[in-house]
Amino acid sequence: MRYTTLKVAIATAMALPQGGLAQEQTPTSETPLARVKEIQEFFGDPANAVKFQFASPETHYIWQHVSQIFPTARFVRSGMPTVLETGIDETIGEIEFTGKDGVVRTVAEHFEALPLDAMLVMKDSKIVYERYKTMTPDTTHITFSASKVSSSTILALLEEEGKVDLSKPVTDYVEELKGSVWDSVTVRQVADMQTGLNGTEHDEPNPDSRTNPQQIWYRWAATLGIFPNQGEDDTFAVLRAMERNKPGGEVFEYNSINTWLLARVAEAIEDRPFAEIFTDRIWSRIGADRDGTFIMSPNGYALAFGMTSVTLRDFARFGAMFTPSAGTVTGADVISDEVLERIQTAGNPAAYPDGYVGQVMSPKFADAEGQLSNAYMWDAILPDGDLFKGGVGGQGLYISPSRDLVAVWFTNGDGSEWNEAMARAIALHFE
Predict the structure, then answer these.
(1) FRET pair for 328, CA 20 to 30 Å: which of 59, 199, 213, 421?
(2) Does the domain spanning 3-152+268-429 belong to CATH 3.40.710.10?
(3) Predicted TM-score of the model (pTM)
(4) What is the mean pLDDT of residues 49-61?
């Protein structure tokens, strides 16, 4: 079924009981103008800036319309969009798994009961499951940290070309940090979130990095316009003041600062803005149907560590780059077998379980607990080579290269929905 035909089907279909191509609630795009103005005014108040990262009636709308409150930079598609074939498999909706609070639900029940906006499963180059609740195939949605692998994928491509050496200090590429503790941090430790430095996102003694204006992470984010400016404008000055807590490479300590630095490494090597790098190396090559956007900071940085918006189907196209169907789905082979294998095998399971994110993720992948690792910004690398990356609010990208499968979803939740367990169950269904 061609894409234009699919749009008509979604617009007119009745809700399907097991999750075919049904649009089941009013899209946020139909929000009345007066309510839109209220939401814009809400986020126009600096006191509410921190609330952008938490699910609410206001974020439910704005996570699908970020350009209405933030300046953005486009990364641009090129050529004709690839035609995504469909072959809906209703049995996917019947797959059972143990999710949040130990509750056993089917995939369809999970979608209906929890705050998912949309989800899609692609198998062997075909869309086999696709549901929309509060958005349509044309709607872009913020991916939050699920987009971190955009920067790490660029890094892996530069590494393959011999343009970056991950064993070197990050300051060999980001000169603004020379003379600081970052001289002792390798690019690999940055890419794997194992720097051993303070200022982490979740692993500080007081776990309030994203809400406490005194925390390093908050101060860093404030220089980028995510939170109200506190009188600090030099992003690098905040990072230069960071200190070492432990040797690098020992513990997976989640930190968006690391992803932001990977984009700076790419910009230093390529000598152009990150949005242009991402356009040329990835987005223009995957048969995307829509341009995507990065929220831009007031000091001119694309916030690719999380402030990225794309459509659900284009998100799936990105994931398909890592599968055997890449050529069919995207029209190009962007990721070589060597790059994929490097990502799948680079992790250190010993560094995984002691950090906050490792502790949160491990129970959700119960069949692989104790064997999980992380590398190249992926939150979880499973022993069978499957890859997962999540984001604030429960956004997710799950790739199973060996099964030629991609699952993507957008939500308006708090991240505790156990969508990861759902995706793993879907993958294991195809054993």
Answers:
(1) 421
(2) yes
(3) 0.94
(4) 96
